[in-house]
Specification:
Blueprint: H1 15-38, H2 45-59, E1 62-63, E2 78-82, E3 85-87, E4 101-110, E5 113-122, H3 128-147, H4 154-167, E6 171-172, E7 178-180, E8 187-191, H5 197-201, E9 211-214, E10 217-219, E11 225-227, E12 234-236, E13 242-244, E14 247-252, E15 255-258
Antiparallel strand pairs: 1-4, 2-4, 3-12, 4-5, 6-10, 7-8, 7-9, 9-14, 10-13, 11-12, 14-15
């Protein structure tokens, strides 16, 4: 949710810092590639989480989600959100079934620098309207990556993202937004995927050295969401499916670098 206070200025990164973040980004990309390989009907979400935790251990990376503070510390290295779950789903004994839409979000720190990314994985035979929802969410992320190097202010990019989603007949989640990222996972600025009066008051200039975790959340139905009693899992209020994808992206003098690209 957007803060009511004036946010701190983002910390700009130089070429050396961005190169180090790319190394952590490669590990996150590898983790999500592994998730795609494992995510099949009959597999438990917990199995995916354990495989990624083992990968982080082998790569010497620190998982950033496990133990993340809240009313209950987050218990896993991944957020695995199913169907109507938007974000922050907790891995467990649930078994993937054909027709499920699985969103996997994970982040790690390597050599002092962080990276964060998320993907949608359709399981087996998935309904055409769900496949199109995923396509629009991925298009929205790619639009942002393309436009961040062409615009002066984030609000210009956010407006294009919002329009793309709404023209497809979907809605943008407004309760959760992207974020700056660097030595810690959540840095200023907040990075919304929409525009409104409050967002424009907290707008920021697109300056070389910015590193952002851009993460559109797109609902098949209405934008409203609720949090479950586990204090983490967020679902759509109307129980219709949601799609979520994310990349860590650096804006440099030479162009835009997707640090979590596979």
């Amino acid at each position: 949710m957007l803060r009511k206070v004036v946010p701190e200025k983002p910390e700009l990164k130089g070429p050396r810092e961005i190169a180090l973040m790319r190394e952590s980004g490669k590990v996150v990309a590898e983790a999500l590639r592994l998730a795609r390989e494992i995510a099949q009907p009959g597999v438990r979400t917990l199995d995916i989480d354990r495989a990624i935790e083992d990968l982080y251990t082998r790569r010497g990376a620190i998982p950033l989600f496990k133990g993340y503070p809240g009313k209950v510390p987050f218990p896993a290295v991944t957020c695995i959100s199913m169907n109507e779950q938007v974000v922050h789903g907790i891995p467990g004994p649930r078994v993937l079934q054909s027709g499920d839409l699985v969103k996997i979000d994970t982040a790690c720190k390597l050599n002092g620098w962080c990276a964060d990314a998320a993907i949608c994985i359709p399981i087996g035979d998935i309904r055409p309207e769900i496949r199109r929802l995923v396509q629009v969410a991925e298009e929205t992320l790619q639009l942002a990556i393309r436009e961040i190097g062409r615009r002066q202010w984030w609000s210009e990019v956010a407006l294009l993202m919002q329009r793309h989603v709404q023209m497809a007949g979907y809605s943008v989640v407004e309760k959760f937004v992207g974020h700056g990222i660097g030595r810690v996972m959540h840095e200023p600025p907040q990075v919304p995927n929409f525009t409104n009066r409050e967002m424009r008051q907290q707008d920021f200039r697109l300056t070389p050295g910015l590193v952002l975790a851009i993460e559109p959340m797109v609902n098949l139905g209405r934008k409203d969401v609720v949090e479950l009693s586990d204090h983490w899992t967020v679902i759509t209020r109307d129980r219709l499916p949601s799609a979520h994808c994310e990349h860590t992206v650096a804006l440099t003098t030479e162009g835009v670098l997707v640090l979590t690209a596979d």
